[in-house]
Amino acid sequence: xxxxxxxxxxxxxxxxxxxxxxxxxxxxxxxxxxxxxxxxxxxxxxxxxxxxxxxxxxxxxxxxxxxxxxxxxxxxxxxxxxxxxxxxxxxxxxxxxxxxxxxxxxxxxxxxxxxxxxxxxxxxxxxxxxxxxxxxxxxxxxxxxxxxxxxxxxxxxxxxxxxxxxxxxxxxxxxxxxxxxxxxxxxxxxxxxxxxxxxxxxxxxxxxxxxxxxxxxxx
Length: 219
Ligand SMILES: [Zn+2]
What we know:
Blueprint: H1 5-17, E1 39-44, H2 51-55, E2 62-67, H3 74-85, E3 91-97, H4 107-115, H5 118-128, H6 161-179, E4 193-200, E5 205-208
Parallel strand pairs: 1-2, 1-3, 3-4
Antiparallel strand pairs: 4-5
Helix pairs in contact: 4-5
The protein binds zinc ion (ZN).
Zinc ion binds next to loops.
């Protein structure tokens, strides 16, 4: 069996981490609308991730869906359904990363801070190193910020066993949400594959997350 596109991207990633550029930035000329590698990537918006660079993708080869955390939100699912059923992608890659900001707050804490709770604002200020200014207003949306499960840590903390586990939990939750969605086929002739990774912003390397496995614990 030939290597999957995801495996090719992993080989590119090792070259990228070694200082080589695989992605060519120049305008490639006219291309079809369907991604040439039939790949869809969901990744965090973090400024340290250049998704096309770190996967060695060329313009036109993949859909790249980004948000805070690389979380499989309602909108990410919407994009993946369109990507697969209308634009023919059949491999999905999820990318979380070390030092992610989503490790440094909880939904309740951010909401309370935004609504004007001074104690929450103080904690957020300590976690982020930025003076937090509450807005003193409640809002119905966004209904969730999707901060990662587990005890919060200071912003941009180096990787350790605990935060790597928290990242893996959320990657698996995203994989599970995709694999169990009724409109994303994972068996039969129209099946898509889903693989999840943590990108180490200090080395440039992707590390695969095992699946299935734990998706969180309050213990
Ligand atoms: Zn992030």
